[in-house]
Amino acid sequence: MEGIQIQYNILKIFSEIFIFIPLKKHLKNHYFSD
Questions:
Q1: What's the rounded Cα separation, in Å, for the pair 18 and 7?
Q2: How far apart are CA 27 and CA 32, in angstroms?
Q3: pLDDT the model gives residue 15
Q4: Burial of 6 (C-beta count, 10 Å sphere; 0-12/13-18/19+)
Q5: Number of CB atoms found within 10 A of residue 29's CB
Q6: CA-to-CA distance for 26 and 11, rounded, in angstroms?
Q7: Which tens digit of pLDDT belongs to each residue from 1-34?
């Protein structure tokens, strides 16, 4: 059971990274384009 929990945590971290990095880039471009 612990192995599944670890895999879930890794998946959560990766999904957060792959969502937040493009989002931050998008926001940066949006706010500093003017």
A1: 16
A2: 8
A3: 94
A4: exposed
A5: 9
A6: 23
A7: 688 999 999 999 999 999 999 888 888 887 776 5
Distance of CA 13 to the CA centre of its chain: 7
How far, in whole angstroms, is CA 31 from its chain's centroid?
A: 20
Residue 4 C-alpha from the chain's centroid: 20
**What is the SS3 string spanning 2-20?**
HHHHHHHHHHHHHHHHHHH
Q: How many CB atoms lie within 10 A of CB 1?
A: 4
For 19, half-sphere exposure in the C-beta direction (CA atoms, 13 angstrom radius) is 6
